[in-house]
Amino acid sequence: MFENLSLLALQHYWWIIISILGALLVFLLFVQGGQTMIYQLGKTEDERKMLINSTGRKWDLTFTTLVTFGGAFFASFPLFYSTSFGGAYWVWMAILFAFILQAVSYEFRTKTGNFLGQKTYEGFLFINGLLGTVLLGAAVATFFTGSQFSVDKMNLLNLTGDKMPIISAWETPFHGLEAIWDSNQLAFITNLSLGLAVFFLARLTANLYFINNIDNETLHKRNKTCLLRNSIAFLLFFLLFLGRILTIDGFAVNPDTKEVFIESFKYFNNLIDMPFVLVMFLVGVVLVLYGIGVALFKNSKKGIWASGIGIVFTVMALFFLAGFNNTAYYPSVFDLQSSLTIENSSSSHFTLTAMSYVSLLVPFVLGYIAYAWWSMDKKKITIEEVEQDHHMY
Amino acid sequence: MEHIDFSLVDWSRAQFALTAMYHWLFVPLTLGLSFIVAIMESLYVKTGNEEWKRITKFWMTLFGINFAIGVATGIILEFEFGTNWSNYSWFVGDIFGAPLAIEGIMAFFLESTFIAVMFFGWNKVSKKFHLLSSWLVAIGSNLSALWILVANGWMQFPAGMQFNPDTARNEMIDFWSVLFSPVAINKFLHTVTSGYVLSAIFVIGVSAWYLLKKKEINLAKRSMVVAATFGLISSIYLISTGDGSAKAVAKYQPMKLAAMEGLYYGSDHAPLIAVGALKNCEDTLQVHRQSFIFEVPIYGALSYLAFGNFDEFVPGIHDLVHGNPEHGIISYQEKIEKGKIAIDALAEYKTLKKIGDTQNAAIALKTFEDNFQYFGYGYYFGRDPHELIPPVRMSFYAFHIMVGLGTYFVLFFILILFFTLKKQVVDKKWLLRLAVWTIPLAYVASEAGWIVAEVGRQPWVIQDLLPSIAAVSQIDSSSVMITFFLFLAIFTTLLIAEIRIMLSQIKKGPESSPSKQ
Predict the structure, then answer these.
(1) Which residues does chain B have within 8 Å of residue A359's beta carbon, measured at their own beta carbons?
(2) CA A185 to CA A188: how far, in whole Å?
(3) Which residue in chain B has the smallest CA separation from A83?
(4) Looking at the predicted structure, is the pLDDT value of residue B281 above 70?
(5) Residues B154-203: tens digit of each pLDDT
(6) End-to-end CA distance of chain A, in Å?
(7) Which residue, A249, B224, B318, B448, could crosslink B398 as a Cys pair with Cβ 3.0–4.6 Å?
(8) In a domain, B323, yes or no
(9) What is the pLDDT of residue B513?
(10) Torsions phi, psi for B166 (to 5 deg)
């Protein structure tokens, strides 16, 4: 089946898989968003217990999605893995540190003998929620604004030159941190605005999730208040990001010569050239707003579903804007021709074919996740339910 | 190779070793304890005996504490392939990335979904669904080990691939050869069974502590029977897979085998050193004939271990470095020269192809292909071939510690099972104390095994094709040094926290039994 597809078709297929995984990851970042509001929402120990146990039962899913997103990127577009991770070292390391801290914090937080104390682990959860979202958002924003790297596969054969035999080289000493602090370039505003938009999106999704998952009137009210503030902040940063990427010059690829060149309004043009992406984007945004609206004005507890689906659509549309329609998805502002496209950075036809068969498992995986969580979440979280549980966080 | 930043290479290696060693402190217990918990829960579901449920929940709590820190240390490893070994990520990403992605899709989601049911689903799902979840967690954990060890096995014996000169990377041409390579299969079976052995020892040791303290007698005795049976079967299988691993190493990584045995000069009837102390002869990078301060050799045993024949010639370090024409072994210097020819020919091919000289490009390509199997050696052109010898003493001692302790564990399980079934284990204080002290030994053996596997193959990231000096990312060595110490600090802190929490949970014991409530 897949072996009959062209390499280009497989590359497109895998960009779609990557986009789905990235979109699911952004949705699942509600765990991180929730972690930044434990004390803002929970005024008593019981309330905090409910909040932490609510996100605590999902943290591993977000974590796994991040790991799978990384693994899938490695398998399908190894040159991105090699260039971005090996180059933007400090950004990725900061993200990884934030996730290390999270992994143990739920389990260790209330256990006797936990060495660092409950507050420290709660601090770790906050750090994960803040850094994990902002830096992931900023890293994805560089798909539109570019980074400073060069790629030379021939350099692997360099045994005597003045440079290490390195294929991908980062051309600034800041190794990724310049994406969020280099005030000489306006790009850092775009990167930061997406980072902060993801942060507030994670928080507002967490509000919607708590409203749905926890059966407690006080928390419901506080979540609603918080939801309004987070939604306004999200919209501000998201619109700033959107305004920037739809007006900036983008990184286009000549489909015949494969030469990368600057095109004015490239991402706006992509939206127009790919109507299905435009529709997906608009439907996504409307669904996000609808979910927020019904939670705020109709007192609905099911806003998470509309907003969740909306987030997935919107993020997928952004990935499509970055990678499809002859666009360099990981542009280099240091050397345009080093920019990564889905064509020049992918795995071989054989590997993409083999991996495509594995990808057929994805609906099955999503199915059992949905079933398991439907079984688990039928009963909403209350303080009694949390305390009766053998494995309380 | 003056342009190689050896400090960067060393710090990158140190960081990867650090994270792998820490990760491997926690993973074996996850691999085995998940099955032990599932077996215990099966007994609960089958018998309906609430005591088994209580026992299951107790071990599940310890499993959860260990699992979290295993996950924390694991995420780093996946991403470090990119952050610290970017050349590697491109050079073999076409092959290596696939198992990692499959690991995520097939194993991690299974594990992470059903672990939540396992921990929080006691009162929310049916008994059978809960039991199924516990088994799926065990299967998911072990499946994740399968895929990462397939990837690791491939690095030690690259199979099912072909170098593409146009993309300057290796590409997969046979998925099944990668998955079912003899090295990968042996590595998987040997590694997971070592995890089962460690977990069984952990359960027995904790149970022995309860018996010494005269607490939780019923829980301890029942746990011991399950763990000792599981451990004995696993340890016997571990020896069998160890034998398979040794034969694979002998065939595909002869230098590693020579280092593991401190075998400087090869011979027929090659001796296995039962016990020995090596002289410090690595500093001078010389190959010594008299390498042992003392040794207890078993003549012919190494030949048998490696090739199933007591008379077979086993090459030593000297034979591999300097060559041994009698046995058809070419020297490292020759390999380095052939590797250099391969690298130069590939560069020439690319240049000729660019200018459209297809005829000469084809000749260059042929030269490259003829010498490709030595490609990685080319990076050592102009350097001392002795640099291609792995750290012998570390490999030797790690191997002997692993084998010695592995043998002891078989006897240990037999003793525990024997006295437990004879209902005398409670009275054997010496055995109970021994059981408690065997827990750290299990961890020592486990880490020693990892050292043998990884140190013994140095300097190769991909055997014969890519040495670590050509695999690193270009980052300041000071940056890697900073992250190394950050990892060291954070992992050590979390390890201390984990041990303290474990000890406190063990002291606290399980929930009160229903009869006491």
Answers:
(1) 105
(2) 6
(3) B86
(4) no
(5) 999 999 999 999 988 999 999 999 999 989 999 999 999 999 999 999 99
(6) 46
(7) B448
(8) no
(9) 60
(10) -75, -30
Q: Is B261 left (phi over 0), alpha (psi -120 to 50) or beta?
A: alpha
Residue B352 within any structural domain of the chain: no
Of B86, B91, B497, the CB nearest to A116: B497
Three-class SS of residue B165? coil
Closest by Cβ to A351, choosing from B3, B171, B346: B171
Tokens 């690193």, located at residue: B472
Question: Which residue is listed with tokens 């494995």?
Answer: A391
Alpha helices by DSSP H, listed for chain A, are 7-28, 30-35, 38-41, 45-56, 59-76, 78-80, 86-87, 89-108, 118-145, 178-181, 187-213, 217-247, 266-273, 275-297, 303-323, 349-359, 361-377, 383-388
Confirm whether the ipTM is greater than 0.90: yes
- B79 token code pair: 């991403």
Cα–Cα distance measured from residue B157 to residue B180, given in angstroms and rounded to the nearest whole number:
11
Q: How far apart are CA A373 and CA A380, in angstroms?
A: 12
pLDDT score, position B517: 37
- Shortest CA distance from A157: residue in chain B: B343
Residues 6 or more apart whose CB falls under 8 angstroms from that of B472 comprise A164, A166, B8, B9, B12, B84, B85, B86, B87
Mutation for A interface: B100, B106, B372, B472, most A CBs within 10 A: B100
pLDDT in tens, A52-92: 999 999 999 999 999 999 999 999 999 999 999 999 999 99
How far, in whole angstroms, is CA B296 from its chain's centroid? 27
Question: B394 in a domain, yes or no?
Answer: yes
* Touching A: B residues 143-182, CB under 8 Å: 164, 167-169, 171-173, 175
Chain B residues with beta carbon closer than 8 angstroms to that of A64 = 104, 108-109, 111-112
Q: What is the mean pLDDT of residues A318-344?
A: 96
Neighbour count for residue B213 (Cβ, 10 Å) = 13
Report whether A389 contacts B118 (CB < 8 A).
no
Question: What is the per-residue pLDDT for B1?
Answer: 52
Put simply, the chain B residues between 30 and 89 with a CB less than 8 A from any chain A CB are 57, 60-61, 64-65, 67-69, 71-76, 78-79, 81-89
3-state SS assignment for residue B333: helix
d(CA B245, CA B191) in angstroms, rounded, equals 10
The domain tally of chain B equals: 1
Q: What is the percent of chain A with per-residue pLDDT over 70, rounded to a whole number? A: 98
Mean of all residue pLDDT scores within chain B: 92
Chain A residue numbers touching B61 (CB-CB < 8 A): 390-391
Burial class (CB in 10 A: 0-12, 13-18, 19+), B424: exposed
Pairing of strands B466-467, B460-462: antiparallel
DSSP 8-state symbol, B190 = H
Contact A357/A368 with Cβ under 8 angstroms? no
- Cβ neighbors of A312 (< 8 A, separation 6 or more) are A20, A23, A24, A26, A27, A284
**Per-residue model confidence (pLDDT) at position A219:** 97
Give the residue numbers spanning the domain of B140: 23-156+167-257+390-447
CB contact under 8 A, B72 and A67: no
B344 in a structural domain: no
Burial A46-56 (b: 16+ CB within 10 A, else e): bbbbbbbbbbb
Omega before B459 cis (within 30°)? yes
For residue A378, the chain B residues in CB contact (below 8 A) are: 124
Tell me the two tokens of residue B387.
């640099």
Q: Which of A92, A104, A359 is the best residue to mutate to test the B interface, defined by the most B CB atoms within 10 Å of its own CB?
A: A104
Kindly state the percentage of chain B with pLDDT values over 90.
84
